[in-house]
Amino acid sequence: MLCVAEFPAVTPCWKTEEFTVSKDCYNCNQFETKTVGQCGVTGFIEQVSCSPSMKVEYKSCRSVAMEKTVFWEFVGIMMVAAVVMSLVVVFRQRTLDRRALEKVRKQIESI
């Protein structure tokens, strides 16, 4: 017979108590990614110490360096997309102008 014990949801101490950051935000290594659940959210964690309970826990965080990198990658991709779309518009406009000019030329020749 399989017995499944239900554990009450444990609220992290940093949600209910005052805390200090003991270790600043850093990238999770391969071992931490597998063992620390908070690494799965952003890939970065910081170590916090809760004052009243004296617990040390990990908290998911966002890295400023990672955010900058992601932002500039996005800006670069958007700039490349803008240049490509501009070239498509110019090419399409020239094609339409050429067709209109050819149509006018044929109409003049038929007179």
TrEMBL record:
<dbReference type="Pfam" id="PF05439">
    <property type="entry name" value="JTB"/>
</dbReference>
<keyword id="KW-0812">Transmembrane</keyword>
<feature type="transmembrane region" description="Helical">
    <location>
        <begin position="70"/>
        <end position="91"/>
    </location>
</feature>
<keyword id="KW-1133">Transmembrane helix</keyword>
<dbReference type="InterPro" id="IPR008657">
    <property type="entry name" value="JTB"/>
</dbReference>
<keyword id="KW-0472">Membrane</keyword>
<protein>
    <recommendedName>
        <fullName>Protein JTB</fullName>
    </recommendedName>
</protein>
